[in-house]
Specification:
This protein has 65 residues and is an alpha+beta fold. It contains 2 helices and 3 strands; from the N terminus they run E-E-H-H-E. The longest helix is centred in the middle third of the chain and has 17 residues, at 22-38.
């Protein structure tokens, strides 16, 4: 069982669900990443885009339980 919690931009984690397999957890994680990054109007590769992506990756997590 894997628990996915992702950064929501307010320095808090948002619970995204429990998943049976790592593949399912990674799919949800990637979906959350896309949703988060689409909320900004930064061009891919800019400093601002990279900083937001770094924030998301640093604060988000997949835990095995």
């Amino acid at each position: 069982m894997y628990v996915v919690s992702t950064y929501n931009g307010t320095y808090q984690l948002e619970f995204r669900g429990c998943f049976e397999t790592l593949d399912e957890a990674m799919e949800e994680f990637q979906k959350a990443e896309r949703e988060y990054m689409e909320s900004f109007e930064y061009e891919v590769g800019t400093t601002e885009y990279n900083q937001e992506l770094e924030n998301f990756m640093f604060h988000s997590r997949i835990d095995k339980c």
